[in-house]
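Residues pack. Consider this:
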Amino acid sequence: MTLVVSSEDFHTAGEPFRIVTGGVPELQGATILERRRFALAELDHVRRLLVHEPRGHADMYGCFVTPPVAAGSSLGVVFFHKDGFSTACGHGTIALVTWALEGGHVAGPADGVARLSVDVPSGTVRCEADVAGGRVRAVRMENVPSFVHVRGVDVEALGRTVTVDVGYGGAFYASLPAAALGLEVVPEHLAAFVQAGREIKRAIEATALPVHPLEPELQGVYGVIFHDDLGGDAATLHQRNVTVFADGEVDRSPCGSGTSARLALLHAEGALAGGRRLRHDSIIGTTFHGWVPATTDVDGRAAVTTVIEGRAFRTGRHVFELDPDDEVGLGFALR
């Protein structure tokens, strides 16, 4: 019997996002984390079909849409990529909100500001979308509380000792200047960043696995953020980054949840004093804007509320098939 799965595809600041719209059963579970476990156990073959070659690629991203679990939320989501199921995805949340409003899956104004909440594995994300003529022009996502996990961790990468900081923005991210490795955030250095990202992730996890203080399932170094400082002014700090996540996957966007982690680190350093915002560029030149509207805490640990703004565009609608006689089956990954 042929497996048939439909999707609508988007990109947010260049990073792909494949939203499953048909061909799968409803995810089971009372919480999004339980539904994430269900997807791992029952729908991993669909993930592989959609993200592996020849239908996807090594850096593909996507999601299963679920009903909401929190009071007042509009929808829920379980994110996936080449190597499994993530706990957070900022660029995916921006794309999902765009899909929900432009496709009429969630009610919103034809012109004005739409407000909705999305239940993700790491918590509930509140969103605002600027809508004009039925089109979403920008999405602002207020992420789950973000915080500094640890500073000053020395690890080996590319034959050098470098010092990294680890922040949480829905997932844990290690962060360091690209210059510490003698690199610049440009496409020509991408292969070196992939190698360094893998080495840094493994080195940190081998010594002290980061674990969220309230939810043990939120653990591990999800990504490594390499950044360049590009200056700025009194109102805006300007940085460019490339995030290497999972097992050597590269985020084409500035990374939404990674930007939240960067904001937590920058706020703790005093770099965002006076309401200063972050202009966060990607390795391909696209941009997110982020800021810290409030401080909070997570189990007594100092934390911040972060807002990330970006825009998504639909790239296509697809019906994918798996012929039972297809010799490559669910596909393959070459990286």
In short: The chain has a mean pLDDT of 97. The two ends are 30 Å apart (CA to CA). The CA atoms of residues 117 and 126 lie 4 Å apart.
